[in-house]
Amino acid sequence: MNTTCIMCPIGCALSVKEEGGAVVVSGNGCMRGQKYGISEFTCPMRVVTTLIKGAAGGVVSVKTKEPIPKSLVPAALKEAAAFRLQKSVHTGEVVIEDVAGSGVPFVATAEFEAK
Amino acid sequence: MTEFDVVIIGGGPAGMAAALGARKKGVSVAILERDTRLGGILNQCIHNGFGLHYFGEELTGPEYAARFSKQVKEDGGISVFLEAMVLSLSEDKIVRAVSPTEGYLEIKAKAIVLAMGCRERSSGAIALAGTRPAGIYTAGAAQRLSNISGCLVGKEVVILGSGDIGLIMARRMTAEGAKVKLVMEIMPFSSGLKRNIVQCLNDFDIPLRYSTTVTRVEGKNRLTGVYIAPVDEKLRPDLSKEEFIPCDTLLLSVGLIPENDLLTGTSVAISPITKGAVVDEHRQTSLAGVFSAGNVLHVHDLVDNVSEEALIAGEAAALYALGELKGDRSFAVEPSGGVRYALPQRITAAEGKVKIYFRVDKVYKGRTVAVTSLGEVVKRKKTAVMAPGEMQNVEIDASLLKGDVKIFLEEQ
User: For the structural domain made of B122-254, what CATH number should be given?
Assistant: First the structure.
């Protein structure tokens, strides 16, 4: 796998592969790059931020409370797009429990008043 | 006429931090904000990554804004005028504004902080050739329509410019079900953060082409497509390699310009490079008592830096209002050799630390930044890599300065 390290502005071009049961990172300029390369190869994680529509109009911004596996991001986005929020919520309040089976909820990142 | 010690124009991240900075000195403060709430553009930046430097955690835009707006509301000494559009500001520091609740307002200030932010370069600014159909938006306008109004502006999208807002919008439009076909950058490098290229484009398999631009757009009522072509080192498109990409939407992320129209007719000196005011380390402009901070001063990449800068400006504005702002001397700070601009452009302090922010003109690896005063080195800083899209800084000790200051990259 080839990727770009995002740990600092240098942005080393990383090459990550499995060799004899171990994950080997090359192209990294420092140890942070190695750690990043391994996590991107084994289980890349992302915080998902998106919008959820109110049942009677309006939108509220949400984020997954913790990073979720990158492979679940498309499913998480689909769940958010299909959901209609029925009530008013405060910042930090759970909007959808257990996003895409990740065990992590979507929480509101802004105040939302249902119409 | 209403009077305040410090009047702040703009209630985004810069305005809010400036207000809190001024309140540290106990003066009366007013914020004039044209939107219906505080927070500025942060309210439409629903992605995360804000506050890593300032708060030590990753917040979304609305969360970052809320941290400050909560403090502003709880402070008790800050009058916030919402939906208040400032019309003019005079040399004697009278601010004229209109608002639906207050009508016509005249406010006399002892000190003013400019915190109006910036605006996006538009299709006119880049002389986009072709017809004028619907479907051409600046990335920030599309972001506002999406994230505040809940409207998706198109289904098949091409993005010109790899600025951060364009990259973020590529991901946002994809998340909302649109197909982002291509992101183009006229330069051979991106002006956006690495992190955004990886997480907004690569994660969603959106292609990015460097040294490529839009040559013309097509469409009568709605955009039907764009012609694109690679450019040479002088940024001239090679029309023999022009190709057509069908799309209904073109987003432009081609740069930001400080919004300083209010200063027309005042004596505030504007830098031709930053398009913001020329300031000293207190962020005081050439018009005494008028300060500037945030994107209206120079375009930042990180809101954390905006907050830091605005706190300095707000506190200094309060000191000016109290008649306590010191300025012993004025040494010019001049960029050269790879440094495109440096800010502040003047240093007045005789002691204490001063952080000089600067941008380089292209990508440099393994270079040393030097700061000299009358030819004598006062600071050297080694850097691994510097890119125009990432603002740098170097801190110097003002007591070492003996005269005008130069900042440059040392020859290798």
Answer: 3.50.50.60
Among A39, A45, A48, A49, the residue to mutate for chain B (most B Cβ within 10 A): A49
Q: Which residues contact B233 (CB under 8 A, 6 or more apart)?
A: none
For residue A6, the model assigns a pLDDT of: 86
ipTM at complex level: 0.89
> What is the per-residue pLDDT for B64?
97
SS3 of residue B167 by DSSP: helix
Q: What is the pLDDT of residues B101-155, one digit of tens each?
A: 999 999 999 999 999 999 999 999 999 999 999 999 999 999 999 999 999 999 9
H or E stretch covering A71: none
Q: Is some CB atom of chain B closer than 8 A to the CB atom of A43? A: no
Q: Per CATH, is B328-412 categorized as 2.60.40?
A: yes
Residue B332 amino acid letter: A
Question: What are the residues of chain B with a beta carbon less than 8 Å away from any beta carbon of chain A?
Answer: 43, 46-48, 58, 60, 62-63, 66, 146-150, 175-177, 193-195, 197-199, 202-203, 384-387, 390
Using CA coordinates, name the residue in chain A closest to B203. A70
The reply to whether B1-119+256-325 and B122-254 are identical in fold is yes
- Is a pLDDT exceeding 80 seen at residue A9? no
Q: What domains appear along chain A, each with residue ranges and CATH number?
A: 2-42 (no CATH), 49-108 (3.10.530)
Q: Domain map of chain B by residue range?
A: 1-119+256-325, 122-254, 328-412
Nearest to A49 among B46, B146, B149 (CB): B46
Residue A95 has pLDDT above 80, yes or no: yes
User: CA of B169 to nearest chain A CA: how many angstroms apart?
Assistant: 11
Residue ranges in chain B whose pLDDT is less than 50: none
d(CA B2, CA B107): 5
The CATH superfamily assigned to B1-119+256-325 is: FAD/NAD(P)-binding domain (3.50.50.60)
- Inform me whether the pLDDT recorded for A8 exceeds 80: no
How far is Cα B323 from Cα B110, in angstroms, rounded to an integer? 10
Closest to B167 (Cα-Cα) out of B179, B180, B178, B152: B180
